[in-house]
Amino acid sequence: MKTISLLTFAASVAFAASAGQAYAGGDAAAGEKVFAKCKACHQVGETAKNAIGPQLNGVDGRKAGSAPDYSYSEPMKNSGITWDEASFKEFIKNPKAKVPGTKMIFQGLPSEGDQENVWVYLAQFGADGKKK
Fold first, then answer.
1. Quick check: is 11 in a domain?
2. Among residues 30, 73, 121, 131, which is most buried (max CB within 10 A)?
3. Nearest to residue 63, comparing CAs of 40, 42, 39, 83?
C-alpha cells in the first residue's frame, strides 16, 4: 500500500513539474498575437527596420540601447540592462518604472503569461531576423 501511495505521489509531482515547465516555456504563437500591440512602434523579422522604436531582432543577449542606427534616450543607453528573459519581463511589465526617462510610452504588459509569450516570440529571432 505504501509503495502505491509513494508512486502515485511521485507521479503527481512529476506531472505538476512538467506542466509548470511547459507553461514556463511560453507560447511563441500566443506571443505573436500579443506582439500586435507592439507593432505600432517595433518590428521584427527579416525585413525589420527601426521605426518609432528600435527593431527587436536578436534582442536576447543584446545590451539595451545598442540597436544600430536608433536614437535611444540617455536613460535607456545608461540602464545597464542586457536583455534576457528576466530583464525583459521586468521591463515590459512597466517600462517607465524600470527605466525612468525612457522614450517608450507603452504602459506595459501586466500579465505574466503575456510577458512570457512575447519574450518567447521575440527570442526566436536572430540578429539577422531569421528564426533560429
1. no
2. 121
3. 83
